[in-house]
């Protein structure tokens, strides 16, 4: 089969489109013919060797996968060949979660093998491309906002980097939960698209101090919940933007992973700072977002599709942050 594999860490030029052996199927596994695999910044960090989650080389990445069941192991009874599925990338083990596309070969290939319980059926009205956008971005948003953040109807949510795959998902899911959504992005073009997703107010973080804009939008009240994928560079302004008893969800650290921690505002305002790791989310979250997509209440945002052979160009697009929403590879 054809796959995108790298034998060393580095820039996008380490990605090789090459022939690799088809996976050997275990008794409790299914072989999936990949129809779509969406990209995440995790894929870039793994390829560059900068991720805290080390991978063995050579490696085939790809955490977000959708396709058809091709074959099943002899112990698999509830999945038939031809079943349309999306892959839950988290494999529960006694030592903790392991991840398809990280600890195992992933979906940047024509075929991938996964434990049978990780293959979640999708209805016909959900496309492969849309399904592949769900496991990381939409489950992160659902798990963060509801399970970790305890979002309640009528609360105000600030979503950072709303033009990203996870940010655009968080805007939609926060609106689905009945929130008033303030979204930030780095260009007016992206903000216009974010408003079409349902954001009630938008802020260009490159031309304005978002904490000052939040004060104006909320009449100095602040927000109940912040969905933050950026990290250190927005830490101080995040604390300024939260109201009393506000909650800060730490999703990612693209703006830095270390900062000076000022305990004062956290204590005085009775704030909660919560980490969010999608690989701890229950599988029910994935089923929830699949159902909402099938009902037309969530619409995965896909910017561009590339053939598998053009994975380097696709990853470069993500590195340049020129996309709005998700970037997809189609084998």
Architecture (CATH level 2) name of the largest domain? Alpha-Beta Complex
Shape category: globular
Mean pLDDT: 95
Number of domains: 2
Protein structure class: alpha/beta
Number of helices: 10
From the N-terminal CA to the C-terminal CA, the straight-line distance is 10 Å
Report the biggest beta sheet as strand number plus sense, adding barrel if it closes: 7 strands, mixed
Tell me the series of helices and strands, N- to C-terminal: EEEHEEEEEEHHEHEHEHEHEHEHEHE
Q: Low-confidence stretches at least 5 residues in length (pLDDT < 50)? A: none
Rounded to an integer, what's the Rg over CA atoms?
20 Å
Query: So, the CATH homologous superfamily of the largest domain?
Result: Medium-chain alcohol dehydrogenases, catalytic domain
Measured by DSSP, the beta-strand proportion falls in 25-35%
Structure description:
The structure is a single chain. With 331 residues, the chain is α/β, with parallel strands linked by helices. The chain has two domains: 2-133 and 300-330, Quinone Oxidoreductase, Chain A, domain 1 (Alpha-Beta Complex), CATH 3.90.180; 136-278, 3-Layer(aba) Sandwich (Rossmann fold), CATH 3.40.50.720. It is 27% helix and 26% strand. It contains ten helices and 17 strands. It has helices spanning 41-48, 128-132, 134-148, 165-176, 188-196, 210-217, 235-241, 263-268, 283-294, 311-319, and strands at residues 2-5, 16-19, 29-38, 64-72, 84-87, 90-91, 98-99, 111-115, 119-121, 156-159, 180-185, 201-204, 223-228, 242-250, 272-275, 302-307, 326-330. The strands form four sheets. Strands 3, 4, 5, 8, 9, 16 and 17 form a seven-stranded mixed sheet that branches. A six-stranded parallel sheet has the order 12-11-10-13-14-15, sandwiched between helices. β13 (223-228), α7 and β14 (242-250) form a beta-alpha-beta unit. The model has no long low-confidence stretch (mean pLDDT 95).
